[in-house]
Design a protein that fits this description.
Structural class: mainly alpha
Largest sheet: 3 strands, antiparallel
Shape: globular
Helix content: 40-55%
Strand order of the largest sheet: 1-2-3
Order of helices and strands: EEEEEHHHHHHHHHEEHHHHH
Distance between the termini: 45 Å
Oligomer: single chain
Radius of gyration: 25 Å
Number of helices: 14
Length: 420
């Protein structure tokens, strides 16, 4: 039989150093946890399953006990729960305790799960979406209340706020992910899913590719400032690894001759996540040697409390570098990804190989009969990366205005690297 208790996990503090109070669900020698909305500022405020040493301790303890009793009643009403493992008990409690059907309640719990899965950047962005959703629809908006008309009204509200097309698409994709998750968990059913018939605003394709001349200038530039050199090195390492995103670089293991990762940006959209494995080319290894720790992690020498601050700092440095070198377009970390794809496209590298190398799912594989006979693997991507790097010998007479906007990968004859 499952045992429920209140606890904090001292090994998993919040970003501000506090600790979330959780309901521990133990069954068959395994334990999982359900987050609550209560926190303690330090481990000294928690003793023997209760909040101590703070003026509101009695109130919080009373509410926590009521919550614990409510969870226990849910299990008591289903005798078969005695045979379930801890994870199944947890999911059942969560499903049965969500009786309001409010989008706010579900979204907050969804965000907590993202944070527990270490997807903090995505969770932070999702919080902004929820904030703007509540500002327009109010906290009493239910999951069942969403319709196509609701989506269109909210899109118009975002436009009036002055949000860009890119931002609107991000907000709508977050909402779609929430509603899909609610449907998958059986919390709501729709006769017609709200996003059926919804057409997202046309994306503005950002032409942020570097020319070969600009790329070579950036690669060979000697920076007196260490911080500028680090920003440039991280940019180049991304390019040498197929336009790898900064968040994936921070978490990757760089201790071997290859790097493998599941791209966080699209991990929730693919079944099990599309794992990418690439051999580290000599150009990449040369950079890694300067920053890798004995544990195989990149250490650029900055002390930052969260990834968002680090990303913003690197972005500002790259912008400054681009301006100081008089680049035609703004220099962004994303430019490494765009430039990699553009150079590969110009060489005639097959789209499905480029898609794999940059961590994209092969969206239209079902319509390509060849995929019934072959399986794309790491060697093809390694060969493509090597081909691109071997051609990066700038020759002024070859630099012509042949680069157009990177085409859209969603179409067979076009290719676009997703912003990341």
């Amino acid at each position: 039989m499952a045992k429920l208790s209140l606890t904090i996990r001292t090994s998993m503090p919040n970003s501000d150093g506090s600790y979330n109070i959780k309901v521990a669900v133990a069954a068959f020698r395994k334990t999982t946890y359900i987050s609550t909305k209560y926190n303690v500022d330090s481990v000294n405020q928690w003793k023997n399953g209760k909040v101590v040493k703070r003026p509101d301790a009695a109130v919080i303890n009373s509410k926590l006990m009521k919550l614990l009793m409510a969870y226990e009643e849910i299990l008591d009403e289903n005798p078969s729960s005695e045979l379930w493992e801890a994870k199944a008990v947890r999911e059942y409690i969560l499903k049965m305790s969500r009786n309001t059907g409010f989008i706010k309640d579900f979204a907050e719990e969804y965000i907590k799960r993202l944070e527990e899965d270490n997807r903090k950047s995505y969770a932070s962005n999702m919080r902004y979406t929820l904030k703007y959703l509540m500002e327009y629809l109010g906290e009493n908006m239910t999951l069942q209340g969403f319709t196509l008309a609701t989506l269109r009204r909210w899109e118009n509200a975002l436009r009036k706020r002055g949000d860009s097309v890119t931002t609107i698409n991000i907000r709508m994709s977050h909402l779609k992910a929430l509603l899909n998750a609610a449907v998958a968990e059986g919390l709501v059913t729709y006769k017609i899913f709200p996003f059926v018939g919804y057409k997202a605003p046309a994306k503005v394709i950002r032409d942020l590719c570097l020319s070969r001349e600009e790329f070579e200038k950036l690669r060979t530039m000697t920076f007196e400032s260490r911080r500028m050199r680090v920003a440039r090195d991280l940019f180049m390492l991304s390019f040498y690894c197929g336009g790898m995103n900064l968040t994936d670089m921070v978490d990757a293991d760089w201790s071997g001759d290859a790097v493998s990762f599941v791209r966080k940006k699209t991990a929730s959209r693919t079944s099990g996540g599309a794992k990418v494995a690439l051999t580290l080319q000599p150009e990449a290894k040369e950079i890694i040697e300067h920053y890798v720790t004995p544990e195989g992690k990149l250490d650029p020498g900055y002390n930052y409390t969260n990834y968002g601050d680090f990303r913003s700092y690197i972005s500002k440095l790259l912008k400054t570098i681009g301006e100081s070198m008089n680049f035609e377009k703004p220099l962004m970390f994303y430019s490494a990804r765009k430039t990699f794809c553009q150079f590969g496209f110009e060489l005639g590298i097959p789209l499905y190989i480029l898609e794999y190398a940059i961590g994209h799912t092969i969206k239209d594989a079902a319509h390509r009969p060849i995929f019934n006979y072959i399986k794309l693997m790491r060697p093809q991507a390694d060969t493509a990366i090597r081909m691109i790097l071997d051609t990066l010998k700038f020759k002024p007479e070859e630099e012509e205005d042949k680069r157009s906007d990177t085409p859209d990968m969603d179409r067979e004859t076009e290719m676009t690297a997703e912003a990341g």
